[in-house]
Amino acid sequence: MGSHVMLNVRNKHAADREKVLADGIKEVVAELRLVEVADYVAFLRMDALGNIADLVESSAQLYLRPGALRFADGGDVHLGWGTVPTIDLDMEFRAPEVTVHFRLALSATTAAVHINYIAFAEPDTDPDINTARLAGAVADARLRTAPRA
User: Fold this and answer.
1) Structural domains in the chain (count)
2) Nearest CA among 131, 149, 108 for reference residue 21
3) Is a pLDDT exceeding 80 seen at residue 148?
4) Tally of CA atoms within 13 A in the half-sphere of 6 that contains its CB
5) Phi/psi at 28 (5° precision)
6) Angle at the Cα of 90 (from 33 to 127), degrees rounded to 5?
């Protein structure tokens, strides 16, 4: 019997990019976590995806420019006896220079971003430059708010 090894195809750049995106949408994620988990379960199970799209849009409009973040019409529910429910939502971040398709995982105490696909309008051969471009796009997508006194 031989052993099977699963290669880790993720790299440092993927983790860095997920962190950049997660940090950029953290307030939106906090808003989305205010919705009852039972509502997400019902919307996903009953294929009422427009309701989730409305929730994402209304949460994002407080922090991001219009169209920067949208629900990508898919998701999963992980709900079992004795386990913490997790809601996975397919999402899209869109800016003129980059598009990111990712999965947002929401649970009672955590949230995570897992990038599935990223496309740069004009990718650089240096992955660090592409990561910096993503960071710039996320920063540009954020609404500027007046400093608190």
Assistant:
1) 1
2) 131
3) no
4) 2
5) -65, -45
6) 105
Could you tell me the residue range of the domain that residue 102 belongs to? 12-141
Here the tokens at position 69 are: 């973040």
Instruction: Indicate the SS3 state at residue 66.
Output: coil
pTM: 0.88
The neighbour count for residue 127, using CB atoms within 10 Å, is 15
Determine phi and psi for 119, rounding to 5 degrees: -135, 125
**CA-CA distances (angstroms) from residue 140 to 31, 41, 88?**
20, 33, 26
What DSSP designation does 146 have?
Answer: P
Q: Over the stretch 39-98, which tens digit does the pLDDT of each residue have?
A: 999 999 999 999 999 999 999 999 999 999 999 999 999 999 999 999 999 999 999 999
Neighbours of 57 (CB within 10 A): 14
Alpha-carbon torsion angle 23, 28, 29, 30, nearest 10: 110
For residue 118, give every residue at least 6 positions away whose Cβ sits within 8 Å of its Cβ, in sequence order, or none.
17, 98, 99, 100, 101, 134
In a domain, 45, yes or no: yes
